[in-house]
Amino acid sequence: MILGPVPEGLSPEGWRVLVMTVGATILFITEPIPLPAVALLIILGQVFLLKLDSTVVAKSLMKDSVLFIMGSLMLAVALVKQKLDKRLALLIVRVTGSNTYRIAFGISVFSGILASFIGEHTVAAMMLPVALSLLQLATDDPEKRRALAVLFLFSISYACAMAGIGTPSGGARNAIMIDYLRDFFYAADDPATYEYKVSYLKWMIYAYPVFLIQLPLMHIILRYTFKTDIADLGPAVEKLKEQVGKEGAMEGRHYVAILLFVLTLIGWVGFSSEYGMGTIAILGAVMFLITGLVRWQDLNSGVNWGVVWLYAAAISLGVQMRDTGGAAWVAGIFMDALEPVGLDSGLGLLAAVMVLTTFITNTMSNGAAVAVLGPIVLSIAVGSGTNPLAVGMVTAVSSAFAYFTVIGTPASTIVYSSGYLRSSDFMKVGWRMGIMSFIILALASKYYWPLVGL
Amino acid sequence: MTEDDKRLRILVCIGGGPEAFTGLKFVHRLSEQSCADIALLYVRPLDSGLKSGGMDIRVARENILEWGLELPGMAHLNKARDILADLGEIETESNDDWQHREVSGDPVGEFLREYHNPCGGTISLRLRTATDVTTAVVDEADRFNADLVIIGGSPEPVEGIRKFLTPKALALKIASHIDQSIIVARHLEPGQGHLVCVQDNERSRAMVPKAISYAHACACPITILSVAETEEERTTAQKAVDEAAQTFRLNGIEPHELLVEVGNPAEIISELGYDFSLIVMAESEKPWFAKSFSVAHDVAARSRNSVLIVK
Known about the structure:
By secondary structure, chain A is mostly helical. In chain A, 75% of the residues lie in helices and 0% in strands. Chain B has helices at residues 3-6, 18-22, 24-34, 57-66, 72-86, 133-144, 162-165, 170-177, 202-218, 234-250, 265-273, 295-302, and strands at residues 9-13, 37-45, 99-100, 111-116, 122-130, 148-152, 181-185, 194-197, 222-228, 257-262, 278-282, 306-310. In chain B, strands 3-4-5-2-1-6-7-12-11-8-9-10 form a twelve-stranded mixed sheet, sandwiched between helices. Chain B is globular.
């Protein structure tokens, strides 16, 4: 493709960037080589194919969103290591009682609210043993246990996935989109562009209600898709209380961990516009290290640093797509395809972006999906005269609609590792979830977002 | 030669479906006759980084272990252990400790648990992680020094155009790569006899003594079959059957039936083999990448019951 003729209306550099993007996307999905190697190839491609100075490429790799990804991953491992999950389990069953569906909904609510602030992988890793423990205590019958497992595990993973869009710190994809919006549209000397520097609170105003409305609907869908014969978990709940009770009262280190987490949260809400979300996340992780709540060895082995490289390289490539005109050219092709069916502007365009993002996010991680799609959809927004902020929000939110496959979201991958779920379970419930989420997001973008100035 | 050296060493791969669990009755039958050392193996593919969003799934697995819960592979292995215990293969006093080992560097991936059977053999439960399941099974068979590997095959063979569109079944992939004799198990119930397929060549002759030892170990009735591709080759096929029958008789086994057929070997063997517990065949001389085109592997792919490829 690189040696082939450059399409009309596109610069040679833009063509090379597009070829690299297509190649990287294929490698993301098929994984014939280790994923971090894809990141390194993107970096090398920018130097050798685009003839960019290596220092320029190196600088383009490190952004606030990348710092945020590193910091939040370290925080995730640090929080899981505090063993607060047993206390959380106790809190959930105290609130919900022993009714199976109430427990499932309680798991969703707690998972969702936590995941909206600290990332879905953290919450999924903490809640997985809670659910597995209840299953093992509930029944020895493999069929009944699986029926219960499907209900509980999807209650965790889907709640985490849809909550991840609630706040900027909920997932890497949000930080990536915030970076794109700021890089592409914000200019310090132009007050008209200030809306593209999205603050933590503003993101929450746009996205949190979308998550909250979906949560009970998700529970209803799960309840009717995965029915269980075990209506009451009374004995299992009692045994769980007994087991957790043996842990004794919360210790000082637990209170310190909760305090550090709350301070990090306050930092994100109050100071991320000034210092950046990444800085606050790094600060939080450093505080956990300084106070001795977590060892560097634990962080080092629990975080997959290759993924940080991958996001950094994908974002850097996204910037090149914009700079070389590659993103605008692809956007033009999309616009030409959407125009005859009336989806080239307004709500129609938002719906098309939703479908496109949902498709891509089900084939790769949602962060990577936003990193790849971001420059293209934002260029489409500019070309069509649609508000780029709305298009960016729709892309970030719909990247959570990865209900159909195991690899769609980190939370799904984590709960799938329990061995109780089958790939076909995701398809069975995924289409219902997809339709529900599409409708909610479409309604929010049509009626709610204009009310809050988007 | 000590008693331990003579003991049959059987590696059973658990996790590929229900067929491996069904095959445990056959393993018990072999062990009853020869007091086998049995290894039950579950291989879990290593978790991929990007899919877990950057935080390794290992963190979640460690958390599960800290709660005192078992990892998924452990549950499968425990189920297999319970089946063997019900069959009387494991001594009643139980061993509840999983010992961690690090064969390929995953701190929460690899565990071992050992039991003894009443005749003095060992039964080990092995949980491993690997990027490639085939490689891990081949490696474990070598480490265990296995004489026989049993892996569950897909219950229904893939036929027609689907055969060319679907990826090769894991059991067949392992059968191609492994150096030890392997049973691709489907409905592997002992008691319906072995169909030993022979040809007039050295590989087939070398296979017969092993087929005899498995027949002794299983105490199963034997039928010998040779398939000639053309009518002209019938005499050669008859010779192969007679030679094999003589060797069986010399080793104290009277074959139940001697069969010579003409036609497509893989088709005929699969069809006639349906009535037996096990079809026994010699491994092909072809390299691993071409084994699919050999009669033995073709039979393993298309049969509806179990096939033993003797190596």
